[in-house]
C-alpha cells in the first residue's frame, strides 16, 4: 500500500510524463519547422543579393562566387520553368546538362503558386534524399524561383541531436522537478504524518490516553492548523468519554468482583465474556478455562441448559446445582436472565450451602431436643398413669416410682436450662465486660468438685496473675464443665492437671486428664449439639449432650479458641486460648 506522499509524487510524475509525451512530437515538429525557417531565411538572403543583378549573367556569376559558403545545392529557375543555374547538376551531368530542362518539381510548382514550397525527395543525380525549399522573387518584373536543397541525412541528424538534447534537458528538469516536488510534498504532508504517527501510538497501545497534537508548529489559519485543532478537540471529547466509560466499567467490575454471588456473562454464541472471582471459586474452575470459551462443552451442563432456555423463553429462570463430595456438598442456586436485544445472557450463582446446613442443623436440633425431652416425659407419663390407675400400690413401690419421676423431671429441667444457656451463648452481640480472675475461677471450681470427687488428684499450675476481660459467670460455667468432665470420665481415682500460662495477646488454659479418652473418629463432632461419645454412659451420668456446645460458644463469644487432643485409654487435653480483651465488646 503506497503512502499518501508517494501517491502524490507518482501522480505528479505521471502528469509530467504525459505532458512530455504530448510535447515531444510537437518539439520534433518544431525543430523541423525551425530548420525550414532557417532554410527559407537563408534563401531569402540569397534572393536579396541576386535580385538586384542587372541581368541573368551577373546573377549566375554571383551564385558561382558564393558557391563555397551557401547551401549544399542552389538552383535558379526562370519564369519559363527552365534551369538558369544549378550548383551541382552541371558538374555531374557535364555536356548533357541543358538550361532548356523544364523543372516540374512539386516544391517549384508550389513556390510559383504560393510563393514558398518545401518537399523531401530522393535525388537521382546526387544519389541521396534531399530537402528542397523553393521561393519566388521578382527579377526585372518576372517571377523567378531560387531552389535550395540540403541533405536529408544531415537534417535528420540535426533533428535527432535536438531531440536528444531535448530529452537530456527534460530528464534534468524531471529530476529537479522530482526533488523539488518531493520536498514540497514532504513539507506539506509532514503535519499529516505527525498526526497519523500520534494516532498510531494510541492504536498500538503505546500510550494509555489519546495524545494531543502540538499546534504551535502550524499556522493557525491554514488547513493543517485547523485540522490539528479540530482533532485535538475531538480527542479531548473522546478521551473524556473513554475516561467516563473506563470509570463506569471499573466501578461495575469492582462491584461484581466484590459480590459474594458468582456472575457469568455469555454472548449469543454461548461464549463466556465475563466471570467474576466468586463464580470461579464456586464452580472450582480457572479463569482461562472459562472466560473466552464456549459453554457447549462445560462440565456443569445445568448452567448451559439454563442459559439456553432463558434466551429462548426470554424470561428469568432458576435452578439448583449440587457440587462437592457426599461428605461436603455445595448447594448452588442458579438464576439466568436474558440480555436485551438477544445479546446473550447473565448467570448469577449463589452459594446456599450455609443456609442448607443451617436448615439441616435446625432440623437435627429440633429432632434431638424433642427426642431428649420425649424420653423423660414418656417415663413420667407412664409412672403417673400407674399411680393413677393403681392407687393401692405398696409404699416402697410408690417411693421408687416417685423417685424415678423426680430424677426424670430433674433431667428435663437440666436439659431446658442447658438449652436456654446455649441460646444465650449464641448471642454474639456487644457484651458488657468485667475483670475476671481466671485463677480464682479455677480454684473455686476445683474446691466445689472436691466434695463430689474426694479421691481425685487435681494439680494446679497457675501464674501469679491471670486477669482478663470477660463475663465471669459464663467463663466459670465453661471451666466447671470441662473440669467436671475431666473428673467424670476418668477412672477413680481421677488425675487432672490444670495449667494456665500467659502470652503477649492473652492466656492459655490446658485441662489434661488421664481418663478413658475420646476415639479419633468422634473428636471432630464432640462440639456438636446433643453429640455424645457413649450415649448410655452419658445418660447414666446425667449429661444432656449440650455441654461442649455451650463451652465452644462461650469461648467464641470471648474471641477465643478451643482445641482437643485425645487418645483412647491415655486421656484427653482441652486447650483454651483467650485474649485479654474480646473483640466487639463494651468494657
Q: Tell me about the biggest sheet?
A: 5 strands, antiparallel
Q: How much strand?
A: 15-25%
Structural class: alpha+beta
β-strand number: 17
The overall pLDDT average reads: 77
**Mind telling me the CATH superfamily name of the domain at 10-159?**
PAS domain
Instruction: Walk across the major sheet and give the strand order.
Output: 2-1-5-4-3
Binned, the helix content reads 40-55%
Low-confidence stretches: 535-542
The assigned CATH architecture of the domain at 10-159 is 2-Layer Sandwich
Top-tier CATH class of the domain at 10-159: Alpha Beta
Question: What fold name goes in the CATH topology slot of the domain at 10-159?
Answer: Beta-Lactamase
Shape: rod-shaped
Instruction: Return Rg in Å.
Output: 62 Å
Count of separate DSSP helical elements: 14
Q: Which assembly state applies to the chains in this document?
A: single chain
N-to-C CA distance: 80 Å
Explain what this protein looks like in three dimensions.
The protein has 587 residues and is an alpha+beta fold. Among the domains are: 10-159, Beta-Lactamase (2-Layer Sandwich); 255-353, Beta-Lactamase (2-Layer Sandwich), CATH 3.30.450; 433-579, 2-Layer Sandwich (Heat Shock Protein 90), CATH 3.30.565. Helices cover 50% and strands 20% of the residues. Helix 11 (438-450) packs across helix 12 (472-488). Residues 535-542 have low confidence and may be disordered.
Amino acid at each position: 500500500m503506497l503512502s499518501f506522499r508517494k501517491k502524490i509524487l507518482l501522480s505528479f510524475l505521471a502528469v509530467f510524463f504525459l505532458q512530455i509525451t504530448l510535447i515531444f512530437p510537437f518539439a520534433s515538429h518544431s525543430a523541423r519547422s525551425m530548420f525550414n525557417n532557417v532554410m527559407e531565411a537563408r534563401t531569402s538572403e540569397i534572393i536579396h543579393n541576386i535580385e538586384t543583378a542587372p541581368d541573368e549573367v551577373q546573377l549566375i556569376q554571383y551564385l558561382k562566387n558564393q558557391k563555397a559558403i551557401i547551401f549544399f545545392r542552389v538552383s535558379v529557375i526562370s519564369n519559363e520553368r527552365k534551369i538558369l543555374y544549378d550548383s551541382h547538376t552541371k558538374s555531374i551531368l557535364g555536356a548533357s546538362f541543358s538550361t532548356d530542362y523544364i523543372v516540374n518539381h512539386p516544391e517549384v510548382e508550389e513556390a510559383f503558386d504560393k510563393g514558398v514550397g518545401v518537399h523531401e525527395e530522393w535525388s537521382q543525380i546526387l544519389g541521396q534524399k534531399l530537402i528542397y525549399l523553393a521561393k519566388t522573387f521578382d527579377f526585372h518584373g518576372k517571377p523567378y524561383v531560387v531552389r535550395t536543397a540540403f541533405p536529408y541525412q544531415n537534417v535528420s541528424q540535426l533533428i535527432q541531436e535536438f531531440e536528444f538534447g531535448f530529452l537530456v534537458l527534460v530528464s534534468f528538469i524531471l529530476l529537479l522537478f522530482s526533488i523539488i516536488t518531493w520536498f514540497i510534498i514532504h513539507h506539506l504532508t509532514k503535519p499529516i504524518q505527525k498526526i497519523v504517527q500520534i494516532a498510531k501510538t494510541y492504536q498500538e497501545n503505546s500510550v494509555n490516553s489519546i495524545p494531543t497534537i502540538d499546534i504551535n508548529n502550524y499556522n493557525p489559519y491554514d488547513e493543517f492548523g485547523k485540522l490539528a485543532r479540530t482533532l485535538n478537540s475531538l480527542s479531548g471529547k473522546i478521551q473524556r468519554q473513554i475516561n467516563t466509560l473506563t470509570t463506569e466499567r471499573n466501578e461495575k467490575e469492582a462491584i461484581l468482583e466484590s459480590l459474594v454471588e458468582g456472575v457469568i456473562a455469555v454472548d449469543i454464541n454461548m461464549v463466556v465474556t465475563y466471570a467474576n472471582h466468586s463464580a470461579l471459586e464456586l464452580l472450582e474452575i480457572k479463569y482461562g478455562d472459562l472466560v473466552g470459551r464456549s459453554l457447549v462443552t462445560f462440565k456443569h451442563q445445568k448452567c448451559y441448559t439454563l442459559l439456553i432456555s432463558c434466551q429462548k423463553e426470554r424470561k428469568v429462570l432458576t435452578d439448583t446445582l449440587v457440587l462437592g463430595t457426599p461428605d461436603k456438598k455445595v448447594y448452588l442456586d442458579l438464576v439466568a436472565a436474558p440480555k436485551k436485544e438477544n445479546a446473550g445472557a447473565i448467570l448469577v450463582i449463589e452459594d446456599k450451602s450455609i443456609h442448607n446446613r443451617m436448615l439441616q442443623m435446625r432440623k437435627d436440633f429440633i429432632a434431638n431436643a424433642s427426642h431428649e425431652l420425649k424420653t423423660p416425659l414418656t417415663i413420667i407419663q407412664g409412672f403417673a398413669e400407674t399411680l393413677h390407675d393403681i392407687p393401692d400400690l405398696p409404699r416402697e413401690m410408690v417411693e421408687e416410682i416417685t423417685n424415678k419421676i423426680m430424677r426424670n423431671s430433674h433431667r428435663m429441667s437440666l436439659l431446658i436450662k442447658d438449652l436456654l444457656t446455649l441460646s444465650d451463648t449464641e448471642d454474639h452481640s456487644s457484651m458488657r465486660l468485667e475483670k475476671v480472675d481466671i485463677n480464682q475461677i479455677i480454684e473455686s471450681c476445683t474446691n466445689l468438685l472436691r466434695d463430689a470427687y474426694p479421691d481425685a488428684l487435681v494439680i494446679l499450675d497457675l501464674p501469679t496473675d491471670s486477669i482478663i476481660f470477660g463475663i465471669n459467670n459464663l467463663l466459670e460455667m465453661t471451666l466447671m464443665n470441662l473440669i467436671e468432665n475431666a473428673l467424670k470420665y476418668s477412672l477413680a481415682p481421677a488425675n487432672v492437671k490444670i495449667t494456665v500460662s500467659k502470652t503477649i495477646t492473652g492466656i492459655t488454659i490446658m485441662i489434661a486428664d488421664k481418663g478413658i479418652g475420646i476415639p479419633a473418629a468422634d473428636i471432630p463432632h464432640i462440639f456438636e449439639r446433643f453429640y455424645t461419645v457413649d450415649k448410655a454412659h452419658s445418660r447414666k451420668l446425667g449429661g444432656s449432650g449440650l455441654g461442649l456446645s455451650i463451652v465452644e460458644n462461650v469461648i467464641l463469644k470471648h474471641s477465643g479458641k478451643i482445641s482437643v487432643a485425645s487418645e483412647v485409654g491415655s486421656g484427653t487435653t482441652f486447650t483454651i486460648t483467650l485474649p485479654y480483651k474480646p473483640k466487639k465488646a463494651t468494657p
